[in-house]
Amino acid sequence: MEVDLLNAGSVPISPDTVLSFEFLLDKELLLKHLQKPNPDPTPLDLITKFHDVITTTLRNRMEPETIESTTVNGSNEVKINHPAKNIAMKILSLKVAAFLNWNLAQIRALPFKTQIDLLQDLMYFTNEERTVFEITNLEQVDLKATSPEFLFALVLFHRWALNTSMHRVTSNWQQRYGINEMSLRDENIICCPENIQKTISFLHESLQWEQMPKLLSFDCFQMPTETNDSIEFNWSKATLISRDEFCTQICYDLGTSFFYQEDYKAAKELFHKCQEYLNLVTQQNVFASFDKNSLQVYIKACDPSVDVHKKSLLEQLNNSIVNQFVGITHVLQQDNLQKEIPLTHRINLELDIQGALSSGVFTVARDLLYKVKALNYVRCILEKKFLNEFSLAVAKNIDAFIWGIQVNWKLQSNEDKKIIKDYLFHLIIKQTVPDLMERIKSNATLGNIFEMSELQYVIKTEESSNIPENLFASDTGLFETSKKRKPKMELRLLVRQLISSYNWKEIKDILLKIGMMNMGTSVWEMNPHWEVPIPIHSVLKSLPRGFLGELSYVLLAKSKEQLLTKNWNLALELLIVLDKELKNANFNVAKFCKMVNWEILLIQILQLLEEWPKSTVDKAALANACEVCLQSNESVIPRTEIVETCAICLLNLGRWEFLIAYEKRWTSFEIMSAVALACHEMVKNKCNKKFSKDLWDIVLPVFAPNPSQSKRSSASCHDINNLRNKLLSIFLRLKDSTCLTVIISMLTKLYNIFKDEANFELQVDCMNLWPAAISNANSYNINTTSEMLSQVLLQGIREYPTNIPWLRVMGDINYANGNYKISLSFYLKSLIICNDYFNIPVRYDDHVFRRMIKCCLALGCYTQAAVLCQFLEEPDYALAFRILSEQKTCNDAVDAYYHCFWDTNILEYLIHIHNRRGEYQRRKCAIQIMGMLELNSSNNQEIQREASNLRKSIFLRALCKQYVF
């Protein structure tokens, strides 16, 4: 058969599919379906589908559902006027719930709206007056004149309300039911403490009832037919619940509720009553549906001391630990017979006792630790798992060990006795424990464990193992053989010592020994990880072959190793020693000496930059040495790394005039000269005159759009990438605050020009000193600009963590890039610093607070955003009201922030919103906040200002705990 999927109704229905109206036509169909081993749909799915049909019917009809009650021949009947289908579906739902024996655990798995409708329907149909009860505020009824069926409905409702309120505490409410499932009326049922107190009182009173409710069965509810549109209830099919079973379930429900309220005294009393009633139940129906094991767990949790000896050995062990190890040896002795407690728990017990003894919290018997270790050792022997440390060489341990064996010996099984006996026999033969055999024989319990044949075997073993006396003599009479030298082995040992040693005296001695061996070994090949700069390597190769060249290579290589690990003192010491050795050389090494001095200068500069700004290096002397190094006109010149590092050092030390005048032989010097010029102009003109465009013109091409793919453009792109890497390398080595200010202001200006969006504009000092526009700005690479600016900002904040403008611009750039949580973190850090962790009044800063509001909105923290609307110089009421009026899933603590509101206009609006929505508790919270004396609008300005400052500090500290710490 062909099926047109685009034509509704053309898909054939499976023959096993049952439609909802078929349950109305065939009275037996529902029961047959529910009695299947795995009915599909399940009973809960059926209830949900029946209620979906009701909802759909009501949505499609304009006429309301009406029900009339009449009395025929003395019995109540329900007259269905319109629509009959909905009433039938409700009856079907109640029949399914009755089939499930009204199990609350399964009913709570239904959608929340369906649960409420089901309970309302049950109370309606069981009530003789046929009145609809308002779930949110259930009126008191005359229980004496109430039918047993309606009593059951009331009890079921109150049990459901109690369990649901407890379930809300012990699970994620919104994830289970969904925020859109919970209506305002439902929230009041769960959250309103008055209603929960009514429920608890009702259930307490029910324990004193003389009349017991009836358990409604599947057959109690009769289905209407096409010929008879009235519904008759056959309450005779209901089962009367025995008083003991009823009280058992009610006590359990109340006990669990008090338990989760942490009222353990009341919970303990109710659980004991529950146990007493349970013992009296002779024939249990399905009303009491809790797990008996759970009841025992609750009883033990409320009162750990009850029935100690009936507990498992592990529970007795834990109870003994809590009670300062009272009776602990008895528990361990029993466990050596039953082997219930895991070995890890017993080993940890030793550590607990040792810790208690060392801390002096309480005192125990002196021999307790020895006894516990001995009993644990016996258990390890039986399990053949030796986990604890127990030395039998100690006399006290041996005595405790024998005691641990004999205390249970008569009760041990034959198998365990054999394991222990074999272990003792093994110890005696190995003679690891002195006088063990004599100790066992002298013990009244263990004296006869060995047979005569075993004792004779032990005696023979001792006789055969006697050691000749001449072996104990000091002179063995052996001839001393001359040791044969192994030069290769000695050389390997010396090389290993050379590699591991960093003492220059030891290094010299080892090199002399290696040289005297004449093995033809070169130090250049001893360690492949040793490296020296290529220019120095060339000079070393040109030196005469001998001790000085090898020593120079080793000291230079080891100094480089220490430099990489930032061990500055040892790296310098090795090079200074080398410099002295070179000055005492008997041939000309002036060129090499110069290069070594430059390496010393490099280490000093790197140490200064690493320890900036608190360094022990003389900055003035170091700056002079850097200038001398750069002005070197001799035949040998410093290597590129040293030259660039010297220039970076001068840039950080403020020697800008020298760098401006210095010859620009490489790109890096051109960049550093331009940075120096900008710094010089900023200090000289005090930020009153625009910078020269040298640095701007160098940096701008880095962010230029990528050229078209051609050979020439590829080369250009390669040059741009090299320039970008060179720029970033220089910028990230800047330490001086003036230099960093210049670079950050320039990159911020470029970012704003490229972004060209006022809502995402970054703000920082000295930004107005750069050019205001660029032609074709929208074609530049803003992502590269953002990445470079972020890296430089992080470098600046790392060096100057209290620089407020840099923290704020870091917040701005994360805000522009959509990293709202990180943005909030940086904004709050800047506020912490400028307000002394909010110990001084918070100043107005609309730029920061407006962006914090937008970050909170983006993160779904609407209450936080509404509170921040008060921080503006002119509170933004329109925005605050719009935030509070929108019903969205809120990711913050909502009413837990209400105490941070001080503006009465916003509080009044909150009260209005909650009143309109019927949100009882939140409205009450807002009213309480508004009623505080310090928020009275008649107060003077000083009191109002103090109230707002206090709430500002409390709120901002709460945000810091969430986003900063």
Q: What does this entry look like structurally?
A:
By secondary structure, the chain is mainly α. It is built from 43 helices and five strands. The chain has a three-stranded antiparallel sheet with strand order 1-2-4. The longest helix is centred in the first third of the chain and has 23 residues, at 148-170. It is flat, with a radius of gyration of 44 Å. The model is unreliable at 1-15, 62-82, 171-180, 470-483 and 707-713 (pLDDT under 50).
Stretches where pLDDT falls below 50 for ≥5 residues? 1-15, 62-82, 171-180, 470-483, 707-713
Biggest beta sheet summary: 3 strands, antiparallel
Number of helices: 43
* N→C terminal distance: 67 Å
Q: What is the alpha-carbon Rg in Å?
A: 44 Å
In terms of DSSP E residues, the strand content is under 5%
Number of strands: 5
Order of strands in the sheet with most strands? 1-2-4
Structural class: mainly alpha
Mean pLDDT: 81
Q: Helicity range of the residues? A: 55-70%
Overall 3D form: flat
Topology:
Elements: H1 20-25, H2 29-34, H3 43-60, E1 66-72, E2 75-82, H4 84-99, H5 104-107, H6 112-126, H7 148-170, H8 173-177, H9 184-191, H10 193-206, E3 214-215, E4 230-231, E5 239-240, H11 243-260, H12 264-280, H13 292-302, H14 313-322, H15 328-338, H16 343-359, H17 368-383, H18 395-406, H19 414-430, H20 436-442, H21 452-464, H22 487-500, H23 504-517, H24 534-542, H25 547-564, H26 568-583, H27 590-610, H28 619-630, H29 640-652, H30 656-661, H31 667-685, H32 694-699, H33 711-731, H34 737-755, H35 782-799, H36 804-816, H37 820-834, H38 846-858, H39 862-868, H40 877-885, H41 904-917, H42 920-930, H43 941-963
Antiparallel strand pairs: 1-2, 2-4, 3-5
Helix pairs in contact: 3-4, 6-7, 7-10, 7-11, 10-11, 11-12, 12-13, 14-15, 15-17, 16-17, 17-18, 22-23, 23-25, 25-26, 26-27, 27-28, 27-29, 28-29, 29-31, 31-33, 31-34, 34-35, 35-36, 36-37, 37-38, 37-43, 38-39, 39-40, 40-41, 41-42
